[in-house]
Design goal:
The chain contains five helices and five strands; from the N terminus they run E-E-E-H-E-H-E-H-H-H. It has a five-stranded mixed beta sheet with strand order 3-2-1-4-5. The protein has a single domain, classed as Nucleotidyltransferase, domain 5 (2-Layer Sandwich). It is of the alpha/beta class and 167 residues long.
Length: 167
Amino acid sequence: MRVLGIDPGLRNMGWGMIDVSGTRLAHVGNGVCRSEGTDLAMRLLSLHEQLADVLARFAPDCAAVEQTFVNKDAVATLKLGHARAIALLVPAQAGLAVGEYAPNAVKKTVVGVGKAAKQQVDHMVRMQLPGVVIAGPDAADALAIAICHAHHVQSSGRWAAAMRAAQ
């Protein structure tokens, strides 16, 4: 299974791709889509085109997106929501199922602590994907989101198999 993780951002949208085979994870690629243009519509179009290109190049089987963290700046939160919409829309247009995870759920899955610092997330991503060269903090977060999704999909698959066996 090939998983695309997406860390939404209006300036920098991180992406990370992993292959999952049983319990083995393998790095496929990672990077950052950087918005271009001055007005919001052009920046969103730029992100859409770049993310669509990532999907076309790597052909993931599913995707996962981090949920928006609401802060005190309502305008910034709303703009982040626009970028998150692009992160959800592009995989949906490609016919992919998209998982959504809260930031603390991603950190808890990857690091073991829901309040982990960015450096801890980066370190654990590197531990789980040895030799990976990460394009930046947004790409590290995206890889963590992909790893989180892989663990949740595997866990739900084991749960479903156990339920079938119990019947």
